[in-house]
């Protein structure tokens, strides 16, 4: 089978200006480009090799087309066989490159004079980077710049048409791309090829990038009420400001599709004039949301928004893809258009790196310069409109760290979700502690948990308050301060350790008492981000701290928790029941045959 000339041209240094009418002419043109005499001994070998490379490129393009067209029809064993055959070819191609290194390196070394310029230019990394392709973890490509092939390839790279050429690490970096591909695979599974991700240096940078891509001056934004405090601030103090984008914020207090639809209709009526004048409505929701871990009915909200042609952005940080994969809904109308994660939390896992990501359909994320797709121009997609310009990229070191952390996401989240069941029930056993957590069957949000979250597990973030005990503020503060070291006194969430914060004294301290109450936050509200520890130790620490600081002002407080024996039994029951549930939901061997 003769390789298609058009497919082969992509490999030419004159890919955009070539006059070649055959593979052989392509190879000759290449030699001319580098001033090589094709009749010389060296030239003949280079010519023959170049011809083979053009043929291989042509064949591989056909292989891609055929794979895309037929893969779904193959049974699993054939797909395994094809995977391994192609995988082996990757090694063969790398081996070719490795074999080329010897003559290439010799030519390079022969050019060095006595005043060797290695110390300024550095070595020639191309030589030594080849085995790095086989590194079992993504390679940390810690570089600002990249070596280019030739002018026409660089030109293509600048127009987003040459994926093998990163231009500058602020724009594209292989380690960051590795992570982006991994999160898309995790979120989207078999449909991963329809989605793309861009990584940012924090969750907030990802959210800001998405909002600045979506919003235009004077637009309307429906926002779920309980968004992370930083997002609240970004919206109020920047996007809504008249001297900035003058975005009209419309707060959504409910959780259901019906409530959302009512709010949307009201907003459409109230802002009819602005909408007629060109203002568009956008939807930004966080689910599960801060600080109570409450779930919104995301599929129903997306359906309602999409009926009106509105785009929905979802911050799904708290659930992580372990609990919730909104982009895998069969009905596309139920999928958000963008999913955001703060990698800083459970996906990274350790809290050692701040990072974030936006995931969306291919055409919303990237379109080659000059092209359009699905009604969008290239300059409207997230990459060119925002990412390329603003510079909030994720560097290679942090991308690597998040990627490594992601590998243990399943294990960590499983433990955390079970621990959430344990800890929420432990607190709920106390008659003067109100637990705002959908892990409890009696909680109004528990139906949505069951409908939407994997294994019906709860989000590992919830709140408790002690208003019923009418504690003196000083005693509550002493109790709260005594929760270290079993609980971490830290502002973040989603780390391996359990962390507490008091929203009324920290993140929500600027809200008025009425606004706090509307947000279900009271002076004694404690937000708990559940970790992977042994819950017995945490429960014991709560009892000891209550003995020290609450019993003197509220006699008998510490005795009103469930007994130590009961707590042990409850924890064991949740662990056994949850693991049984997971085992029962395991895919079977036959599912994979
Ligand atoms: C739900 C949620 N989204 C986004 C963010 C912001 O992420 P980052 O801290 O990585 O900027 C946070 C931070 O706490 C969060 O809790």
Please give a quick description of this structure:
By secondary structure, the chain is of the alpha/beta class. The chain is built from 23 helices and 14 strands. Helix 14 links the parallel strand 5 and strand 6.
Molecular structure report:
- It is a single chain.
- This protein has 593 residues and is an alpha/beta fold.
- The protein has 4 domains: 1-68, no CATH class; 75-115 and 126-134, no CATH class; 176-406, 3-Layer(aba) Sandwich (Aspartate Aminotransferase, domain 2); 409-592, Aspartate Aminotransferase, domain 1.
- It has 23 helices and 14 strands.
- Strands 1-7-6-5-4-2-3 form a 7-stranded mixed sheet, with helices on both faces.
- Strand 2 (220-224), helix 10 (229-239) and strand 3 (248-252) form a beta-alpha-beta unit.
- Helix 8 runs parallel beside helix 17 and helix 20 packs antiparallel against helix 22.
- The protein is elongated.
- The two termini are 33 Å apart.
- Bound molecules: pyridoxal-5'-phosphate (PLP).
- Residues 202-204, 228, 230, 286, 290, 315, 317-318, 342, 344, 354, 356, 492-493 line the site of pyridoxal-5'-phosphate.
Features:
Aspartate Aminotransferase, domain 2, five-stranded mixed β-sheet, single chain, Cystathionine beta-lyase/cystathionine gamma-synthase, 593 residues, binds pyridoxal-5'-phosphate, elongated, 10% strand, seven-stranded mixed β-sheet, alpha/beta, 23 helices, 46% helix
């Amino acid at each position: 089978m003769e390789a298609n000339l058009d497919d082969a041209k992509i490999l030419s240094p004159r890919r955009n200006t070539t006059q070649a009418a055959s593979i052989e002419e392509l190879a000759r043109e290449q030699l001319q480009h580098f001033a090589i005499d094709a009749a010389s001994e060296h030239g003949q070998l280079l010519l023959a090799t170049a011809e083979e490379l053009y043929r291989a490129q042509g064949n591989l393009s056909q292989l891609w087309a055929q794979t895309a067209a037929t893969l779904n029809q193959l049974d699993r064993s054939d797909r395994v066989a094809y995977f391994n055959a192609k995988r082996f070819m990757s090694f063969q191609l790398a081996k070719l490159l490795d074999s080329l290194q010897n003559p290439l390196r010799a030519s390079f070394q022969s050019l060095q004079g006595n005043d060797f310029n290695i110390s300024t230019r550095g070595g020639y990394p191309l030589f030594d980077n080849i085995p790095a392709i086989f590194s079992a973890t993504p390679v940390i490509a810690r570089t600002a710049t990249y070596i280019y092939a030739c002018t026409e390839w660089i030109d293509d790279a600048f127009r987003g048409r040459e994926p093998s050429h990163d231009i500058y690490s602020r724009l594209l970096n292989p380690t960051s791309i590795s992570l982006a591909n991994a999160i898309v695979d995790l979120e989207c599974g078999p449909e991963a090829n329809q989605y793309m991700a861009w990584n940012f240096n924090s969750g907030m940078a990802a959210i800001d990038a998405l909002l600045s891509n979506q919003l235009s001056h004077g637009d309307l934004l429906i926002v779920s009420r309980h968004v992370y405090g930083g997002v609240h601030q970004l919206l109020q103090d920047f996007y809504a400001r008249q001297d900035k984008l003058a975005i009209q914020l419309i707060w959504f207090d409910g959780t259901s599709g019906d409530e959302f639809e009512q709010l949307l209709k009201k907003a459409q009526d109230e802002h009819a004039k602005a909408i007629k004048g060109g203002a568009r409505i956008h939807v930004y929701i966080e689910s599960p949301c801060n600080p109570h871990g409450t779930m919104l009915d995301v599929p129903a909200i997306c359906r309602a928004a999409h009926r009106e042609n509105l785009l929905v952005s979802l911050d799904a940080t708290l659930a992580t893809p372990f609990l919730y994969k909104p982009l895998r809904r069969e009905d596309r109308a139920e999928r958000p258009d963008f999913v955001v994660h703060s990698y800083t939390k459970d996906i990274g896992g350790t809290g050692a790196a701040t990072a974030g990501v936006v995931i969306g359909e291919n055409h919303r994320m990237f379109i080659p310069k000059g092209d359009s797709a699905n009604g969008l121009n290239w300059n409207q997609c997230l990459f060119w409109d925002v990412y390329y310009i603003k510079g909030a990229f994720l560097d290679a070191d942090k991308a690597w760290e998040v990627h490594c952390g992601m590998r243990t996401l399943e294990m960590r989240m499983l433990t955390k979700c079970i621990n959430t069941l344990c800890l929420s029930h432990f607190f709920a056993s106390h008659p003067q502690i109100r637990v705002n957590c959908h892990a409890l069957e009696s909680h109004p949000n528990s139906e949505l948990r069951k409908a939407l979250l994997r294994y019906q597990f709860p989000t590992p973030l919830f709140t408790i308050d002690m208003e019923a005990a009418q504690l003196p503020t000083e005693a509550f503060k002493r109790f709260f301060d005594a929760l270290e070291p079993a609980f971490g006194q830290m502002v973040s969430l989603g780390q391996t350790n359990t962390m507490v914060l008091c929203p009324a004294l920290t993140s929500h301290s600027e809200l008025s008492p009425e606004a706090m109450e509307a947000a279900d936050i009271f002076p004694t509200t404690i937000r708990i981000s559940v970790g992977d520890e042994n819950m017995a130790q945490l429960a014991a620490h709560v009892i000891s701290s209550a003995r020290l600081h609450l019993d003197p002002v509220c006699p008998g407080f510490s005795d009103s928790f469930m007994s130590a024996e009961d707590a042990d039994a409850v924890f064991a029951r949740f662990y056994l029941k949850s693991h049984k549930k997971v085992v029962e939901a395991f895919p079977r061997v036959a599912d994979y045959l």
